[in-house]
Amino acid sequence: MSVNSKTRLLHLLKYLYEQTDEDHQVTTNDKERHFSELGAVVDRKTVSADIAALQDFGFDIVSRRSTQNSYFLGGRLFELPELKLLIDAVEASKFITAKKSKELAEKLMALAGKYQAEELNRHLYIADRVKPLNEKIYYTVDGINTAINRKKQISFRYFEYNVERKRVYRNDGKRYRFTPYGLMWNEDHYYAVGYSEKHGKIITFRADRIVELEILESDAVPPPQDFSLPEFAREVFDMYDGQTQTVTLKCKNEMMKVILDRFGDSVVTKPLDFAHFQAEAEVSVSQTFFGWVFQFGGDIQILAPRQVLEQYREMLEKAHE
């Protein structure tokens, strides 16, 4: 790769970007040696002038004065802790395939310098996680996003699994015609939310079960004026699919985190005794809510209203029949 007066600054910036950080600095001699390896000869004044030009342009190149000046690239787009969080999120995602996770992690590590990338790689632990095998999921989500931005309809085929763990296509294998309004993330799965022509209403489709997606030329079907994606998500995923009521719950003290995670910081709580507290929350009285209470094995109990408690008991009795 040739170095000339037009590309010299780019070579210098690339060198600093890849080879330096606060703990790994380079001297003027190092930079001269680097350009020499590229077949270019630069003197100290040229290197100093180039550093100054990059600094004037806005790059955070830190100079440390001593008997031999040293330099490193300071501020980057992402700090090391931020990159660690992003890589962990990519690796933990059940939506992204193992191959794509590895590719994305490597791209994120490339945003750090050489030595910080090595640190990220050394600290990366990938536990046995359930990962999808379908590499096309990644592009399905991209296609849905593109359709949303262009305000266009899409068509696709949709499948589930039978008892033999084989794909069974819904709608007799026919394509669905769908207007996507948004994407929702719930319990490690992406869901496309929008208007289904077949169903005649707004529903959700799991993105990882959508195949053969096509963006159509047809304009999107506008959502109702009162449609709210957050409200729809709340109704579908957060136990708001029945009649809404304020329910009083008796909870063991260690359940406080669970209550706050589910209902938010605004939920009303007060101590009951040394081992329990009371919480009042607005919920939808439904099988979803009762199933949520049941999973804690008595650590969360329904106190009121009485009719809700009776409904819960009836559900338990039916489950034991």
Q: How does this model look, in words?
A:
It is built from eleven helices and 13 strands. It has 321 residues and is α+β, with helices and mostly antiparallel strands. The chain folds into four domains: 8-73, Orthogonal Bundle (Arc Repressor Mutant, subunit A); 80-122; 137-226, SH3 type barrels; 238-319, Alpha-Beta Plaits (2-Layer Sandwich), CATH 3.30.70. Strands 4, 5, 6, 7, 8 and 9 form a six-stranded antiparallel sheet that branches. Strands 11-12-10-13 form a four-stranded antiparallel sheet, covered by helices on one side. Strands 1-3-2 form a three-stranded antiparallel sheet. A hairpin with a 5-residue loop joins strand 4 (152-161) and strand 5 (167-169).
Q: Per CATH, which architecture of the largest domain?
A: Roll
Helical residue percent? 25-40%
Mean pLDDT: 85
User: What does the main sheet amount to?
Assistant: 6 strands, antiparallel
How far apart the termini lie comes to 77 Å
Got a strand count?
A: 13
CATH level-3 fold name of the largest domain: SH3 type barrels
Rg over CA atoms, rounded to whole Å, is 28 Å
Structural class: alpha+beta
Per DSSP, the total helix count is: 11
Q: Which regions contain 5 or more consecutive residues with pLDDT less than 50?
A: none
What's the CATH C level of the largest domain?
Mainly Beta
Element-by-element helix/strand order: HEHHEEHHHHEEEEEEHEHEEHEH
Key traits:
elongated; 11 helices; alpha+beta; Arc Repressor Mutant, subunit A; 4-stranded antiparallel β-sheet; about 325 residues; 6-stranded antiparallel β-sheet; SH3 type barrels
